[in-house]
Specification:
This protein is mainly α. Helices cover 61% and strands 1% of the residues. Strand 1 and strand 2 form a beta hairpin. Bound molecules: heme C (2 copies). The site of one heme C has 27 residues, from helix 8 and helix 9.
Length: 303
């Protein structure tokens, strides 16, 4: 009797607690929704911009702008006419707009110092400036063009495309970039970078231009469709569905994955342990009570 009122009190306390808890939770939900919205908007705007950039034809103003930028930022290593400077930088005549877009777009160029391998870093130039330099370089000698969005954007809903891309990736790329594009070390302090962050366009351009000691996968060696399939495979492997070992937890890294294991899995184990504990005592108590009631004997007496 006193028990019931006790439980009533407890549950009213729980109710007030859960009512209070609603506020911070609601704030989190709103925050997540807002972040999602920003992400989606950014993605749409970004791809729209990329489309506009690759379809624009070079104008005389763009060429002049590209030449000016090139002469101030790149000619010290590549020469005033992009003819190359012995010991500083290779000739860029004939490397094509795609090479410039890749090298400057991934922040490799302008190189800061000469090491075993020029590192990727946040890009220094806007896409407009990169387009101008790319147009200028390609005006000096024909080379692979920056691909249009429909050339490098894969159809992710096509499972055949993803599967074919996986086969192609394993036979052409994984010896350097590792099985799921996780990257790997090469000789002489060089390395094949991980491909988890690289945009579709830059992956396509890397294949077209073969930076450093990566081979060139020109269209006669590997068709545009096959390149797109490889991109489909890489994009797919970034999503949960592409993780062969089960959930990849978003591939955001060991810290967050460790945290997941600590909080969720350990928490679950504790809950299971408590559940087992509570249930076995309860169950055995009930059994003992039943035994004593029906037989009239003391259950602790083993005779
Ligand atoms: C400090 C010297 C240096 C500067 C400055 C520099 N580069 Fe380079 N660049 C290099 C070197 C060295 C390589 C060879 C890259 C490698 O082997 O990793 C290279 C490679 C390249 C390539 C690839 C060529 C190919 O065969 O695919 C392009 C394109 C390029 N640079 C463009 C530029 C542009 C555009 C700028 C100016 C925004 C620039 N570079 C500034 C040193 C430089
Ligand atoms: C012989 C080894 C080798 C092979 C094979 C190879 N790559 Fe590479 N790849 C490299 C190296 C080295 C770099 C770094 C170049 C640099 O930093 O200038 C690179 C860079 C890249 C990048 C740029 C990554 C970034 O974020 O900047 C992409 C994308 C890429 N490779 C894709 C591929 C694909 C796709 C294939 C297969 C079709 C492939 N690679 C095959 C060695 C290789």
């Amino acid at each position: 009797m006193t028990r019931t009122s006790g439980i009533g009190k407890e549950s009213s306390v729980v109710n007030t607690l859960s009512a209070r808890r609603r506020h911070p939770l609601a704030a989190f939900v709103v925050l997540f929704l807002a972040l999602g919205l920003i992400g989606a908007t950014y993605a749409t705007l970004g791809s729209a911009k990329a489309k506009a950039a690759s379809s624009a034809a070079a104008t005389p103003e763009q060429l002049a702008e590209g030449q000016k930028l090139f002469q101030s930022a790149c000619s010290s290593c590549h020469g005033l006419q992009a003819q190359g400077v012995q010991g500083s930088g290779p000739s860029l005549i004939g490397v094509g707009a795609a090479a410039v877009d890749f090298q400057v777009g991934t922040g490799r160029m302008p190189a800061m110092q000469i090491g075993p391998q020029v590192q990727a870093k946040p890009p220094v130039y806007t896409q407009e400036q990169i387009d101008a330099m790319a147009a200028y370089i390609s005006s000096l000698g024909a080379g692979p063009d920056v691909p249009a969005a429909d050339v490098y954007t894969p159809d992710l809903s096509d499972q055949g495309s993803v599967a074919n891309g996986g086969v192609l990736f394993r036979s052409n790329c994984s010896q350097c970039h590792n099985i799921v594009g996780a990257g790997g070390a090469l000789t002489d302090g060089k390395f094949a970078p991980p491909l988890r962050q690289t945009s579709e366009k830059h992956i396509y351009e890397a294949m077209l231009t073969g930076p450093q000691n990566m081979p060139i996968f020109g269209n006669s060696v590997m068709s545009p469709q096959n390149k797109r399939d490889i991109i489909a495979y890489l994009m797919h492997s970034r999503t949960e569905a592409g993780s062969p070992g089960g959930l990849d937890l978003g591939s955001i890294g060991p810290v967050s994955e460790g945290l997941f294991v600590w909080t969720i899995v350990l928490g679950l184990l504790i809950v299971i342990a408590c559940w087992i504990g509570a249930h076995t005592t309860k169950a055995s108590r009930a059994r003992v009570a039943h035994f004593e009631a029906t037989t009239g004997k003391d259950a602790t007496n083993n005779e």
